[in-house]
Structure prediction request, 338 residues.
Amino acid sequence: MGNIKDYAIATIGSHSALQILKGAKDEGIKTICICKKGAEKIYKQFNVADELIVLDNFDNFEKLEDELISKNAIIIPHGSFISYLGTNRVQNLRVMHFGTKEILEWESNRNMERVWLKKAGLRLPKIFNTPDEIDTKVIIKFHGASGGFGYFIAHTAEEFYERIKGYKGKEDYVIQEYIIGVPLYLHYFYSPLTDEVEIMSFDKRYESNADSIGRIAAKDQLDVDLKTSYTVTGNMPLVVRESLLPEILEMGENVVRTSKELVKGGLFGPFCLETILDPNLNFYVFEISARIVAGTNPFINGTPYTWVRYNEPMSTGRRIAREIKNAIMSDRVEEVLG
Ligand code: ATP
Prediction:
């Protein structure tokens, strides 16, 4: 039987690191936090890192690899980890990595992601290949627009051509059906050890300035010539109508089953479906994150759903550590690495 004392859990200090490291410590696993200079303060103050490694930047992250390997560190990827290193560098890491790396390509490519989600039988907002096909309200999304800055809404081809004039040189966009409804982010965990998809939690985002526009009258909005942006500033916890849970669970199960047809090992560990729920209670999925999302951060002490299941505080970060611990103790570590 493997011993958890021989391993460490490591991640970059940002995004959901507090939750990941706290979860690892709660499971009795050593923690390593790799920080950009300045960020170490937080991880020191909250006392979640047994070891802190401070770097000027992440350009030389790979230089650390031999040290991490010698410590039997298992890297937990999160959104900032992937965005700092880029999917290519993550693919080439030699250090142990929780989760299947190949699925990250499917997640980060908008076309591949659609193929995956469609194959899983999920409802997606329609994509219009040319502006002339626009026959309903659409959202124009520019690739790499951090925080959705500059996205705009149109209802007709004419309106599209008029508004796109303000975006000279920006040809990399997608025209997507705009769904009127509430954004709802669904958090899951799939255990390859038990072959079960678990509902973990739900959140909604607090986005600036999308969430502040309704605070002023329509006339004032027009007067100050507002442009909507969706920069995420934080996340708010949610519980959903209980009658929606069976469908939500099925959606997660379908995504996992399909992922196994796409890449060896499929998707496992935490993941999130980003959806809009319309007034007829139809879920439209506009994105998937194949890793822990920051929307799980309000739940470091557990969620209503994990409380029912585990009867102890169980965050997504802790659930990851629990999976690793179970894998080590049953000599199945290979099954949670990718
Ligand atoms: P990324 O992670 O690629 O930066 P994101 O997760 O911020 O993207 P986007 O797809 O950029 O999400 O969408 C930004 C915002 O626009 C989200 O808050 C979402 O609520 C809203 N949105 C996205 N797609 C639609 C849609 N088809 N209909 C209605 N609202 C949408």
User: Anything to note?
Assistant: The CA atoms of residues 3 and 89 lie 30 Å apart.
